[in-house]
Amino acid sequence: MLLKTSGFELSGEKELKMSTIRTEALTHIYSTSTPFESVAINNINIEIDQGEFVGLIGHTGSGKSTFVQHLNGLLAPTSGKVCFDGRDVNSSKAFRHDIRFKVGLVFQYPEYQLFEENVYKDIAFGPRNMKLSTVETDERVREAAGFVGVPESIFDKSPFELSGGQKRRVAIAGVIAMRPKILILDEPTAGLDPEGCAAILNNICRYREATGATIILVSHSMEDVARIAERLVVFDRGTIAMDGTPADVFSRAEELRRIGLDIPAVTDIALHLRELGVDVPECCYCVEQLHDAILKLKGGAAPC
Amino acid sequence: MLKDVTLGQYFPGDTLIHRLDPRTKILFVTVYIIALFVAKTWVSYGSLLLILLISIAISKIPLASMLRGLKPLTIIIIFTAVINIFYNGEGRQLFSFWIFTATDAGLIKAGYMLLRITMLILSTFLVTYTTTPMALTDGLELLLNPLKKLKVPVHEFSMMMSIALRFIPTLIEEADKIMNAQKARGADFETGKLTDRAKALLPLLIPLFVSSFRRADELATAMEARCYHGGEGRTRMKKLRLAAADGIVMSFSVFLLAAIITLARFGL
Amino acid sequence: MEPFIRVKDLLFRYEGEEELPPALDGTTLDIHEGSFVAILGRNGSGKSTLAKHFNGILLPQSGSVTVCGMDTKDESKLLEIRRTVGMVFQNPDNQIVASVVEDDVAFAPENLGIPSDEIRRRVDEALKLVDMYEYRRHSPHLLSGGQKQRVAIAGVIAMKPRCIVLDEPTAMLDPQGRREVIDTVTRLCRENGITVILITHHMSEATGTDRVFVMEGGKVVCEGEPQNIFAGVECLKKLGLTVPDTTELIYRLNASGFELGYGALTVSDCAKEIAFALKNKRL
What we know:
The structure holds three protein chains of three kinds.
Chain A: E1 21-30, E2 38-48, E3 53-57, H1 64-71, E4 79-84, E5 87-88, H2 93-102, E6 103-106, H3 119-129, H4 134-148, H5 164-176, E7 182-186, H6 194-211, E8 214-219, H7 222-228, E9 231-236, E10 239-244, H8 246-250, H9 253-259, H10 265-275, H11 287-301
Chain B: H1 16-19, H2 22-38, H3 42-59, H4 63-70, H5 74-87, E1 93-97, E2 100-103, H6 104-130, H7 133-144, H8 154-184, H9 194-200, H10 202-225, H11 244-265
Antiparallel strand pairs in B: 1-2
Chain C: E1 5-12, E2 24-31, E3 36-40, H1 47-51, E4 62-67, E5 70-71, H2 78-84, E6 85-88, H3 101-105, H4 107-111, H5 116-129, H6 145-157, E7 163-167, H7 175-192, E8 195-200, E9 211-216, E10 219-224, H8 226-231, H9 233-238, H10 245-255, H11 267-282
Parallel strand pairs in C: 3-8, 3-9, 6-7, 7-8
Antiparallel strand pairs in C: 1-2, 1-4, 4-5, 9-10
Helix pairs in contact in C: 5-6, 6-7
């Protein structure tokens, strides 16, 4: 638990309360009673504690996007419920509106959703909807911009003049400015070059370290999330197929393949090595881990 | 909610109605609409409704899907009907408020109007649901071909229309996404005064506009890369050909129009 | 042998960017017919601008681009150049013109004034080549990203081009769609002899190519076979690119005293290389 440094508070609440989000038998069916009826998620039971860093993996259509849109009340469950700190998110209209500031959701390609005349105003959109004072809004805008590396020198620029990478940072800042306790990002690195990807993931980690916020990173790429998440949840056809540490999940390579997901290249190399009789651990998923494991073997085999 | 808009959506199928030449369908629906406006009584309305229902049945398109397409237009339909209640000065007065007076004749007229608009929309839906946009615009282009002599840009017009139809679902999906993203940042589209709600639309419309321009630009480049250079020298994979069924339907539409006009003459 | 595409001293600056360095600043490269080529580079390195020069969408402000001996600046050859070099773009949604898959694939041959029966044949053939024939009557907006992109590829193949340029075709796709697209173009190159120019920043997609060009600041800064290019791990990192994890692992092991070859780009080759090295040590 890394709550609160440098006078930073979450959603204006004074106490450092544990916030958990919990779903109970959450089910969502699209286009009920039409020929297009489809079950997007089915009987999801999960609990995510304050401060966790969760990677949500699954391929397109596995229900992960539908799932996260329930967490901030954008979608209402067909059956079952979502609770934030024990209270049903859909219990009242006011609470459902309020929850959106506590559970920040950054959609895919958020740069296509910018609209204000300048960067500052766009980041301030969320805080303004929270009816915060000008002073507090200003503080939050600057702070959020700082987290994602948007320099104040471009505050007066139109968001449409920025480069793709910068636009995305501004869009993420727009959600961070609401100081959400839970930050959900849907494919935040899609379409960026390697440098851009690394920078965005870095910013997210920094935000978490500074605020202790819960992070839920939605992705269909194992490699990206494996490096930074502490817990992986794998979705398959609307249900949770796996839930555990990256090491747990990647040691079930066969199962992942059956679901149609790629295992990280490093895990794959480790599996091949084991087949070739090289005794490396089967749950390697980072280059460093496998490097160290191989080095140990080398050292053991040829002591010098 | 935006997903309910089904305008221009094509329902694949291989029924008699799907196979008809788009020109026949355009012609028939034009005649049908004229007939709707000529029709005066329950008799003619009834027969026109029957024709519509039979056509829908043949096309195998679920009635529920057709009716769902009406949903976004409900307000317009009801509004037009309600206006008619008060618009008619004749008949027995039922009630009145301010400068409006409702009469029984007006009420009946409103009922007809409701039926007329609904049938009009459903009949055009039937055409767009059973015809691919490409065929539809091809048909239109051929029907309007004589206008080319008057220097009317018929090809450009029909190309524009087919692209517009192609992008409707894409843009609806996008509008939906943007709306959700703004809602996630606390935008409120549902409550508040009318002016507040109109203001809330701005965050939706601006990105939608910007992205439409971007899409248009990329599409133009892609079309150019695929050797598009206007209508000159273009050929078609699917040449439109009139079959026997088209002849029958076209003759039937002439008969239908004649019949409705005759009925109207006799006050039916 | 005269190269299929020759790009020489290309200079290009976008309108309204006079104060910025040009997007292309003296790009020179040759591409041979039938080869599978990757062009790598970070965002803004000029690779997309270069792509649009291969079929005359953009024209050189100085320098030249020659396709099969035709200069792209020769307006009378423009259609011929465009049917020779087809192009697939990043966003599949913004390049599909028609509302039915087969109508979209027919778009280019229709523009070329090809007789109806021949178009029908080409459309069916193209759809079968990309494995989308059974979806021919579907509406594109209901397909997955990978499927849409394959329809876009079919739309280009129906022109019977000798070369296909793909500008970051997988940037918006999930891993499965990415694999579908890469497998499809690899097959088109290897089995049908079509020259493929793949523009990407996913290093792993370049592993199966014949030749890699790396761009930076509007210039080609290095070119060679993928294994040789990836061996320059340091250099690639400086250019804001990453190497595939296989290469990264070999690189680190070598730094720790191994002597592994950089030729092993696939997972199984890499594992074999390492296992071999470890066993030799033991002997």
